[in-house]
């Protein structure tokens, strides 16, 4: 089976330990699925104990054998009961009693934190190390970029399948189902992991016609009616007709690594204004590829993109309408949909090589529809490189 | 669009307010997607303020218009900034300053709780009301049972499609993808919401042949290799051959309501022992339908099922092998995969009419494979009623 290389895991742990040291945290207890996968190479029912210095211990309740076969970390120690945790943490700290423990307080539920604090670590202070972890995860290694490029090949398979599957009268939900099957066949894992509380991604937003401009609660430029009030966003039962623009925004997952892509299609010529909007989106991409370089400040990049849109006279419809605007033009992604950097107003994070994000300058025209191109990019020394080999043309079928 | 009836919402809120009153909680602030859907009829980016007595207020950041069209709750109040929350809570409490506020501390991340506690409600005590909410959600209304029955019709569509799709050489992942498409076409929403931290469900477990007995970290009798260490469970790239047992365990979702089902298949005759195990699983179902009545204690039901299995001489392989056993024989489900009741050792919850759970007596035979039937049941006055109309026969194709 596929494995995360040992050198990857070792480098990640080295960075984490360095940050724990400088932050005065004696040891971290990593518990969340995505972070476990990042630091161990597998998701198991486990705690990863990372001391600020010394050897990490992978404490696994279940499944111990599979943890050993899928992760390069040694030792893998079986956990029978949670009361085993404090002595193992102490052992990882080479016998000294740790005072400050780090956990992922951005995702750990409050009741679980209380349990760790009161029952297991009454003499320790538990502090949040989620920002340290997220900071490390922000810069992708060469291997990780390769994973995201392979996810981009799934995205291409999806984009290439649309002309075969899109036909008059097909519903958004059906088209989405067919494309999910294409994605699964191309290796899509079926996950779109999110870090933010309450955030849920189900494959993406496949939206068509004027109703595509329907806003939703989801923090994104596009919303959509959805199929149900239980998940009031994304594809609906609406049937696609000729002359409508169809926006295919999909989240592909290759062994946990994500690739977010939007391509637009139509059966026959789409409305001229949407065609123009798509062209503008593509032009903004071209310009942004040169502008978003290491050293650029994310908040300033956001404002620059808005400035280009204003100059083109399209700001009324950019990233939403009225008060329903997405506050960002790009969101970081990798193992989760909502990583750093967020390219949004007021953000001060500075771009560095190896950062990845989905850039989605989109136009929402009430009563007409939506249009816009989205690629997953990596920051290189001279600008952005797309991880999406799919054609960027608006496909008129 | 589909809507949750106003009478449902009203009844749920009445029960919640009664429990808040008797628990001495002045008001609850409901935030989690599933609970919002349950109490308002829609998932939006919102807080639902439920005072112990008086009118609830649906405080919506986004999308206000859609909240108004999808939810019967009035008033819907737009939230501009989180600092609007405390005055609205006070208004809902008819102007008196609440002292004890309830939140869902089993799912709310620790950092978010700190924010509510320190920035917004420094003078209030925030207590956990998740058990109150989960208790109400345990008893399904007639309407909810109808939703779960409709989800069962999606499960039937999946089961009925297997004979058309299963062929020699198809991989588990491909078969799973084809069945997901069938499910989507039948109205499956593509969600399998979980309450437990780190729990993730992707459609279900489609497992075949001897490797089906591979255990995983997932808290369930079956595991499977999976396709990736990023999600080391479920369908793999293994190709299905004649004479193997194929276990199709799927999670269908109709407007948020779940139906969990397992049916077994084979191309040609499967191994005799697995056939026998499937037959025994079906017999256990028959017996359990009569035994699991209102008044039965869940822990005792669990032990009774184990007793039947011991009498049949199959306990060595029941619900796992060695130390890898699922501690339950059934898990509650409804809007989430992990609701009450849990029919597990030591549980003291007493069955009541209207409770629903997935009963999955399964046999795991290392080196041979897995077998077992699973239905979603509702507790009626005289025993269990299945919400799964799909044929329960082992299908030899």
TrEMBL record, chains A, B:
It comes from the Bacteria. Residues 146-380 form the Peptidase M24 domain. InterPro entries: Creatin/AminoP/Spt16_N (IPR029149), Creatinase/aminopeptidase-like (IPR036005), Creatinase_N (IPR000587), Pept_M24 (IPR000994), Peptidase_M24B (IPR050659). Gene3D superfamilies: Creatinase/methionine aminopeptidase superfamily, Creatinase/prolidase N-terminal domain. Pfam families: Creatinase_N (PF01321), Peptidase_M24 (PF00557). Residues 12-139 form the Creatinase N-terminal domain. PANTHER family: AMINOPEPTIDASE, XAA-PRO AMINOPEPTIDASE P-RELATED. This is Peptidase M24.
């Amino acid at each position: 089976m596929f494995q995360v290389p040992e050198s990857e895991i070792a480098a990640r742990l080295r960075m984490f330990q360095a940050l724990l040291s400088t932050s005065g945290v004696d040891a971290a207890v990593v518990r969340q699925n995505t972070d476990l996968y990042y630091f161990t190479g597998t998701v198991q029912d486990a705690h990863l104990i990372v001391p600020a210095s010394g050897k990490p211990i992978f404490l696994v309740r279940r499944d111990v054998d599979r943890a050993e076969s899928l992760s390069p970390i040694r030792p893998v120690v079986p956990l029978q009961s949670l009361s085993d945790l404090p002595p193992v943490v102490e052992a990882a700290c080479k016998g000294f009693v740790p005072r400050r423990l780090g956990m992922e307080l951005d995702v750990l539920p409050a009741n679980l934190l209380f349990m760790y604090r009161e029952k297991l670590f009454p003499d320790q202070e538990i502090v949040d190390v989620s920002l340290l972890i997220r900071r490390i995860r922000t810069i992708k290694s060469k291997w990780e970029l390769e994973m995201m490029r392979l996810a981009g090949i799934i995205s291409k398979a999806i984009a290439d399948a649309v002309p075969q599957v899109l036909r008059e009268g097909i519903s958004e939900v059906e088209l989405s189902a067919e494309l999910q099957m294409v994605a699964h066949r191309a290796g899509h894992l079926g996950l779109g992991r999110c870090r933010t509380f309450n955030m849920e991604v189900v494959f993406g937003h496949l939206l068509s016609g004027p109703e595509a401009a329907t806003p939703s609660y989801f923090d994104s430029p596009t919303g959509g009616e959805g199929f149900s009030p239980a998940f009031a966003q994304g594809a609906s039962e609406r049937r696609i007709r000729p002359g409508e623009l169809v926006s295919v925004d999909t989240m592909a997952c290759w062994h946990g690594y994500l690739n977010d892509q939007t391509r637009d299609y139509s059966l026959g010529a789409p409305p001229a204004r949407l065609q123009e909007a798509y062209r503008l989106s593509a032009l903004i991409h071209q310009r942004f590829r040169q502008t978003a370089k290491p050293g650029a400040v994310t908040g300033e990049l956001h404002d620059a993109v808005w400035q280009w849109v204003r100059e083109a006279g399209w700001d009324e419809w950019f990233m939403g309408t009225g008060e329903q605007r997405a506050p960002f033009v790009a969101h970081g992604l990798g193992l989760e949909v909502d990583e750093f950097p967020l390219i949004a107003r007021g953000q001060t994070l500075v771009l560095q090589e190896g950062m990845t994000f989905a850039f989605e300058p989109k136009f929402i025209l009430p009563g007409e529809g939506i249009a816009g191109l989205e690629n997953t990019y990596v920051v290189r020394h001279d600008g952005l490189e797309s991880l999406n080999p799919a054609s960027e043309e608006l496909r008129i079928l």
